[in-house]
Amino acid sequence: MSKDLSANTQLWNEDLAPTTAAQRTWRWYHFAALWVGMVMCIPAYTLSATLIEGGMSGYQAVLTVFLANAIVLIPMLLIGHAGTKYGIPYAVLARSSFGTSGAKLPALMRAIVACGWYGIQTWFGGSMIYTLLGVMLGYEIGGEKIAGLGINGAQLACFLGFWLIQLYYVVHGIDSIRKLETYTAPLKILICFVLLGWVYNKAGGFGPLLDQPSQFVEGGKKAGQFWSTFWPSLTAMVGFWATLALNIPDFTRFARSQRDQVVGQAVGLPVPMGLLAALAVIVTSATVVLYGKALWDPVDLASRMTGIAVLIALIVLLVDTVSVNLAANLVGPAYDFSALSPKHVSYRMGGYITAGIALVMMPWKILETTQGYIFTWLIGYSALLGPIAGIMIIDYYFIRKTTLNVDDLYRDSGEYMYRGGWNMAAIIAFVLGVLPNIPGFLNAAFPAAFPEVGDVFKTIYTYAWFVGVAIAAVVYGVLMKGRTQPALRPATHT
């Protein structure tokens, strides 16, 4: 890469520049540990609950989760290839398809979704401290709610405490996150086996849920309705990691080789996610015997433990939430905010912005109104991010033939300038990819306000991510056909 590009501070800074050979320290086991660290999280654990409550058997729920993660692994590996080959983050790769200015649109959309998740996960972390401290002290540590906030002082202190714990990793950069994921992944696997042994001994077996048949069988409550439940569930599961499918180059740019990123991700995502779903079903099945009802919330389960088990549960859940929140919801928006204004915003400053938004958004208020719509949110933003993935894959593999002119990604006068920095083919493809899903989303999120949405739009929304990827990919491919040739001056990292 040409050294003179550093003068263009509107498109370049040290954090956005291609990684050097010295920075490429991630081996396959680092990627596997990264995914184990992200998969072992409370929202992923409780996903199985939504499937079983929807009528699936334990086996159907586990297989649905596994299949969804096998599907989302495909765009991750495809988009991650560019990060490893050229050492560039997602926000820079998007310039190839959307233009040097237009790339700010997909970067901002990815960042906004991640900020929402970062705030919510931070609130979950603070809530764990609050709940389990109360159990350890033997009394509720509540109090009067603070006017305007809607939470008490202890809840606010726990939220801010967890926020500060994560700030350490914002200050110390992405390598500190890699070390956290690598060192804690084996601990999480060990804890899973300990938890299985604990519930087996306490319950004298694994409980009744494992033997509970699907409600879709003949004579069941939802006989013949399996597919109408399966497809939106699968789309929601894909949506769970749809954000990472886009910004995975933010991690793969540090890979030693393509083999490291491919093997690491293939080992680290689908199987551990399926195993976690199985663990959730087994443990929850045992809680029916232990407590007389299914406890899908691991914090609720931990709060019922006694003695040293409560302290161990607190530490494990905190480490778990910190590791997933930093990897899944901090790294991406930090680069994305940096790409919006490279001259003024570094990766670290982007992290501060993300953490700051998490504070001011008051995530507990968002959960008050959207907690019942977790499927709506997951499917909704998958409808938004799916088209971006379709466009980027078509651009990189079919238009560019995996060959990029890296220098021009950082120039405002190169081949990725298009018209005024915007590639209208990408914008049109994105809009057309999102458009069919809007009526279904409005009906799902606000049924009282939009009751007259036709069945065809509801059906389309059921496949939101898949519809968005397919439409945007086809439209972009048609609009770009014959317009752009692979770069004549290939460049790799230096």
UniProtKB/TrEMBL annotation:
The keyword DNA-binding does not apply. Keywords: Membrane, Transmembrane, Transmembrane helix. It is found in: Membrane. Gene3D superfamilies: Hydantoin permease. InterPro entries: NCS1, Pur-cyt_permease, Uracil/uridine/allantoin_perm. Coiled coil: none annotated. Pfam families: Transp_cyt_pur. The keyword Transmembrane applies. Its main location: membrane. The chain crosses the membrane at residues 32-52, 58-79, 111-133, 153-171, 183-200, 230-248, 269-292, 304-328, 349-367, 373-399, 420-440, 460-479. It comes from the Bacteria. It is a multi-pass membrane protein. Belongs to the purine-cytosine permease (2.A.39) family. This is NCS1 family nucleobase:cation symporter-1.
